[in-house]
Structures are given as C-alpha cells and as structure tokens.
Design a protein that fits this description.
Distance between the termini of chain A: 38 Å
Largest sheet of chain B: 6 strands, parallel
Structural class of chain B: alpha/beta
Largest interface: A-B, 66 and 78 residues
Number of strands of chain B: 6
Number of strands of chain A: 0
Order of helices and strands of chain A: HHHHHH
Distance between the termini of chain B: 17 Å
Strand content of chain B: 5-15%
Oligomer: heterodimer
Shape of chain B: globular
Order of helices and strands of chain B: HHEHEHEHEHEHEHH
Strand order of the largest sheet of chain B: 3-2-1-4-5-6
Helix content of chain B: 55-70%
Largest sheet of chain A: none
Number of helices of chain A: 6
Radius of gyration of chain A: 28 Å
C-alpha cells in the first residue's frame, strides 16, 4: 500500500514536471514569435510609430543581450579549459590559454581597453598570430587545389582550377615583369566582372531566399533554437 | 530611390513574406496529398551513412555552427546549423559519446547548449546532456578555427558537420577534418568561403543547398515545405529576371 502511494507520488511529480516544461516551452515560443512579428511589422510598416519604436527597443535589448553573451562565451571557454586541466595530455595548451586569458583580462581591467599595453598585446600577439594563420591558409588552399583533382576530377573542378590560375596570373605581378599584359588588363577583369559577378549574384539570391525561409520557420515556431522543441 | 519606390519595395517585401508564409502552411498541411520528392544530393546520403557509423563505433559527431551573431542578417545560416544539431543530436543520442557543438559566438553557444538539451530530452536521455558539449572556441575568425581544430583531433570525432556562417577560415577546419580522415559536410552562406570550400571540402554544399539541410535530415514537415516554396520562388525569380532582361532589350522597360 505504502509502495503504491510512493509510486503514485512520483508519477504526480513527473506529470507536474512535464506540465511545467510544456507550459514553459509554449510561453517561450509565444514570446519569441511575438517579438519576431513585432520587429518585422516595425520594419514593414514605418507609418505606425508605435511599432517602429517597439522594434528599435527590441533590437537595443537584443544588442545588450548579445554583448552579455560574449561574456558568457568567455566563461564557457574558461570552464572547458579548466576541465581539460584534469587530463595531463591536454593540459599544456589549456594552461597557456587560461594564463593569457586571465592576464589579458586583468590588464584590461587595470589599465583600460585602450591603454598602450593593451594595444601592444593586440598588435604584437593577436594580429601576428592571425596573420600567420592566414598565410597557413594560403598553403593549405594550394594543397587542397592539388587534392581536388584526385577527389573530383570532373569538368567543374578543372574549370575551377583554370579560373583560379587566370585570376592569380592577372592579379599578382611577377618579379621583374610586373603585371602580365592581357591577363591583368583584359582577361581577369572580364572573368571577375561577368561570369564571376553573375554567379555570385545568383548565389546571393539563393541565400536571400534561404534566409527568408529560415526566418519564416522560426516565426512559425517550427525551428525553436531557444529550447523546447 | 523615391518615396513611392521605397514604399513599393516595402509592401512588395511584405507581400512576398505573406505569400511565402501561406505557401509553407499549405504545403506543410497537404504534405500527404502532394508529397515532394527531394532531388538526390550525394552528400546527404553520405552524411546519413556517416551518422550511422558514428553511432555504431561509438565515436562523436562534431557540429560547428559558425560565428553568425543573432541580430545579424547572416544569423539564418547559424539557425540552419542549430536545426541540424537538434535533429542529428537526437539521432546520435544512443551513441557512446554525445555530440559536440562548437561556435564562435557567445549567444550561439547558449542556443547550442539549449538545443542539445532539447535533443536529449526528446530522446528520453536527459541525463546524457552536458553543458560543456556546447562550446565557444574563439571569438575572432581564426581563433575560432584554431580552437575548433583540436576538438576534431582530440575528442574521438568521426563526423564533422560544419554548417553556418564562416569566412575563409573554414578551409583550415575542412583541411584538419580531412587530415584526421573524418567525414565532413561543409557549408557556409559566405561566397568567398564557398569558393574555398569547393577546393578544401570533400563534401561541400554550394549556394542555397545550405538551407536544404533541415529537409534532408528530416527535421520536420515545415522544413520540406519551406524548401518547396524556396524552389518555387527561385523559378519565379529566374523568370522575372529573364523577362525583365528581354523587356529591357526590347526598349520597353
């Protein structure tokens, strides 16, 4: 009898939990969809000042939340690497990251983000590291282009490589020769301004349609990245 | 642009939005009466196989959803990435290692954690959710890529789904995935990124294929309906451009 009562009690708690979760999900969906509709109407109906003001207020709130989310992101980075410290094989890089993260944070708090010391950190560490990764990317792309012929030796790949070569020859001046005639003054501009621009516009139109559909799915509540579904 | 023209654009945009919304609703409701056959894209067949293999051998699926913030026009690509996470994380919830999501934006990380939680709850395995499986790896393009590459190497990852807003730094991530012999699907809404992905990615999605991911991973009827509307609108645009060009050529416009 007692066991039966305990079982019924747990079931009631589970049912209550499910009910609360469902209500929360519906409530979140209503807030998100209503906010989306208000922002959209504020954009499309500028003749109604109330909607426009509401849209501006919502966007300002979103900007503040996005700024807070940066801090949340940094805290997440900190937590992940603190946990990695437990694994001795992965600890070295995490220690480095945590030391520099905390050091830069302390420096920024003490001296201010626009101080010369912070500028030195930015221009002497951040920019050179990112530039070297960009250089690595150039090598990586060269290798990938060679690998492309092994993966997909078809008409599209060959066209891609020939076009890339023409653009290189037309863009990068060679030592002692300078810009290569015909490639730099005729062929490259023609390729860049006619087929490349037309293709890019086509892709942009497709991306715009895809963005529209994604927005509508969120307004319908079919995609709910804010939890629930 | 004159006041009349800008009003025309605004109301035209609103009209397009309302028509699209109605079409999505109609196609979603009448999906059984008018089923839509998706064209075969080999990348998605390979992705389904890779997900199955990941579940079988107990390895991890890694998602990277890019750096698109929430209030930017390119956030749509990140939302596509999140919809993919939602569906695939639920499918792989039975795997020994839970899926992992990396991003380059704090707000996206919060959403990815929430999405993972929703996936495990839907799969009746809420205890498998770990907040640290949704991670920020860096807040600048290259620091993000540099932070995501060790995840592919050190976390028993066999499948990478890189879908979202990326710049050209995605080539480094795609290259790292290839070096690990991992299966990877790569897609971005950014045109230079698509160009480098054509060379660097073994399974790139070009153009608006990115926005079809939800329909192909069976994320829901609305995804398929929206893809159908997207295809219809694309044909309408093509016809409008061709007719406009012909009218211009004839001197009527």
């Amino acid at each position: 009898m007692g066991a039966h009562h305990r079982h019924c009690g747990w079931r009631a708690i589970e049912t209550g939990g499910y009910f609360v979760r469902t209500i929360t999900t519906i409530f979140l969906a209503i807030i998100a969809i209503a906010s989306g509709v208000v922002v959209l109407l504020g954009y499309f109906l500028p003749a109604i000042p109330f909607l426009v003001n509401l849209r501006v207020a919502f966007l300002n709130w979103a900007m503040i939340l996005a700024a807070v989310a940066v801090f949340v992101g940094i805290f997440n980075l900190f937590s992940v690497h603190t946990q990695k410290l437990r694994n001795k094989n992965e600890a070295a890089y995490s220690v480095l990251l945590l030391v520099f993260l905390l050091g830069t944070f302390a420096l920024g708090l003490l001296l201010g983000p626009t101080s010369p010391a912070m500028n030195v950190v930015f221009t002497s560490i951040q920019i050179p590291v990112e530039t070297s990764l960009m250089a690595l990317l150039a090598v990586s792309l060269l290798y990938a282009t060679i690998r492309l012929l092994r993966w997909r030796a078809n008409f599209m790949s060959i066209t891609f490589i020939i076009t890339a070569l023409i653009i290189f020859l037309g863009t990068a001046p060679l030592p002692f020769i300078g810009p290569i005639p015909f490639f730099s003054d005729w062929l490259r501009p023609v390729i860049a301004q006619v087929p490349a621009a037309a293709g890019a516009r086509g892709i942009l139109l497709g991306v715009a349609l895809g963005t529209l559909m994604t927005g509508l799915r969120i307004l319908f509540g079919a995609d709910r990245p804010y939890g629930g579904k | 642009m004159s006041a009349n023209n800008s009003e025309l654009v605004l109301y035209g945009g609103l009209g397009l939005l309302i028509i699209s919304a109605l079409l999505i609703l109609v196609f979603a409701l009448l999906r059984r009466e008018f089923p839509y056959a998706l064209r075969e894209i080999p990348t998605f067949a390979r992705l389904r196989r890779a997900i199955g293999l990941a579940i079988e051998d107990g390895s991890r699926v890694h998602f990277s959803i890019g750096r698109g913030g929430l209030i930017m026009p390119w956030s749509a690509a990140a939302f596509v990435g999140l919809a993919t996470v939602r569906r695939v994380a639920e499918l792989t919830s039975v795997s020994d290692r839970p899926s992992l999501v990396t991003s380059g934006d704090g707000a996206l990380t919060v959403l990815s954690q929430d999405t993972l939680k929703a996936s495990y709850t839907a799969a009746v395995a809420p205890e498998r959710y770990d907040a640290l499986m949704g991670r920020v790896t860096g807040l600048t393009p290259f620091s993000y890529a540099a932070g995501a590459i060790p995840v592919m190497r050190d976390e028993n990852v066999s499948t990478n789904v890189l879908v979202g807003n990326f710049g050209i730094e995605i080539a480094l991530m795609a290259d790292a995935a290839e070096r690990q012999d991992n299966f990877s699907v790569v897609a971005s809404d950014n045109i230079p990124a698509q160009a480098v992905l054509f060379a660097a990615g073994s399974n790139p999605l070009i153009g608006e294929e990115l926005y079809a991911v939800g329909a192909y991973v069976q994320a829901g009827a609305v995804h398929t309906a929206s893809l159908r509307v997207q295809d219809i609108l694309r044909w309408v645009l093509i016809i409008a451009i061709v007719v406009g060009a012909l009218l211009k050529l004839a001197g009527i416009l």
